[in-house]
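Posted in: Protein Modeling Q&A

I'm a second-year student putting together a small comparison for a lab meeting, and my supervisor asked me to include a predicted structure for Tetratricopeptide repeat protein. I've never done this before, so apologies if this is the wrong subforum. The sequence is pasted below exactly as I got it from our records. If anyone can share the structure token output, I'd also love a short note on what stands out.
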Amino acid sequence: MSSLLGITREGDEHYILNLTENFKARMVNWFGSLEERIVSMIKTGTSVALIGPHGSGKSVVARYIAARLVGEYYAVIDLGVDVATFDSMLEILHEVSNALGFYDPLGITFYDSPLLPRSEPAMQWMTKCRYVIDRAMYLATRDIPTLLVLPYDLLRYSRCREAVERSMRIVDISEYLRYVDLRRVLEEVFLSHSAALGCRKTLGQFVEYVMEKHSDLSGVVALAAYGGRHYARRGCAQSKPEDLYEEALRSLAKLYYDLYSEVFFPTCQAARALATPLWLSLEGQQLPTDLAYPLANVDSIARRIALLSKLGPQDAGVKEEVLEELKELYTPREELAPAVKWAVAPKESIIKESLRLTARENPCLLSPDNPARLIRTVYKGLLVIDSQTIFEFAKVIASLSLGRSEFCTNKIGKYVCKDGQVPPVVVDALGMAQGKRITQEVSIPSITRCDEEGVELLAGLALLDARRAPAKCVEKFVQLFYSASRSDIELFYKFYQDYLEIAAERGTLPVLRKLAVAHLSRTPPREAVTVLEKVFHAALGAEDYKTAEIASVALVAADLTSAKRILPNCDCPILKVSVAYHIARSAYESGDYQEAIRYLELALAELKAQDPRYEYTPQFVKQIEELYRDLALLTVL
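Accepted answer (user: helix_wrangler)
Welcome! Here is the predicted structure, written out as tokens:
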């Protein structure tokens, strides 16, 4: 008689059971090649770690393999049990011809109901995984392979990751999921769970909806299972896929929240430490790990910065002590290391949705009101600890403005970059918060010359308030802004808005022309409105209608409402026609046809006046007439 050995427990006592009968439920072998590969490895004595996304069917496959091996006279040894029970299981191994070690900290275990995930075995894995690995290695000395089942996160942030990768063959279920008929698999899962509750119908749209929402394959099997249950509880009535999905997600989200809170933030202190990087990660912004550590201490950092600002020369001893305390707050805490690395990492889609839905229920895991402000406080602390850091930050700001990121390999990169990229929230922290760049938080000697070029020029300007910059510096800045056509104009506004505004106020006509053209060649952000209005009015006052026209067209792209306000009331027909036409085109593209016609009629009225001072090109007149004809037709229809 084939036998499957397992463990059950009552209170603190564990017992060995024969669980063969529990595995007579119908199991469909969806992953033929995956199953054959794992079974062949096990039969040759190779230990296997089956990994993959959460809720992707790893435990189902592992259970199927275990049930199959039972038929070939294998015993299954649960590596997660206590020492006494493990030893007693080893004593009876002589009763079977072969055996298999098994450990699945989240899914279906041999002493548990088939609900997932279970936080207790997962916590055991994260804190005592060495025991599991040691047992697997011991079994290997007796020619007993182990099948270990782990989701990505419990492997990536485990202290035993290297040991697993070194001693086991890694098999990723997602590599197989992409080549099976996943739609059929999920439909069978859905139907089997709904049928168990008396429902004989299926809902194909639900499976389609799940596959669209989770292209990374995370949660698809689990969602199909929960979807089938909720479908049956709805009386098998036709339901919107999104409504059924919401119910299935809520059921699953609570389980995943319990798992992750237990594994990574079991205490209020740990939750507070992870709050900022975790919420940013859920929104797709991954912070550098070295930045996430001091974020846990941001309040303490702010207090010490404030205290240092109040200390005078006579408080040198106290200042030294506070500085040492401040440095200590930037030292990574070993006990938080796995949790911080998880918090700043990209998340599977099912974990993103689950935590967004449930994490707000934790009063200690509050979403930060202004994460950029918190990050800026951490940066200010770095400036206080080492004043030379200001020059590194200046180089970062200059490089980012020109679309470069070579600084990511430098010392400062570990506080700024994640995988070679700078998260938007970090850009906000470095930029013009309350009118100041981060490099203006610490006073340094003023720079009065601008002999450098490129990055070096911008780095020097980043240290100086534009109001104190010589005219030569402002002119060179505008020239650089004008020539850096590939750079993101929004970054210039985040880092150098004061220089752009000063250039618009003080610039000569050639400077204003370059400033206007630079905006026209790129898509200006909403922050450009003030600068473009200043350029327009300055050029209009100097009767430089060409520059005024360029500025007005750029302003239409930045903010249509502001562009309407500047429609000139002057003896300048060509400028009026151009401004009115571009406002009309923008209104047309946004679907406001009546407004577009009104401004086109202003342009046509100026054209009909036929001012002898101006001659409009036939192409320009044709553009206006064709737009008016299209609008007239749309209005009639």
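A couple of things worth pointing out for your meeting: Residues 1-9, 14-28, 109-116 have pLDDT under 50 and may be disordered. DSSP finds 30 helices and seven strands in the chain.
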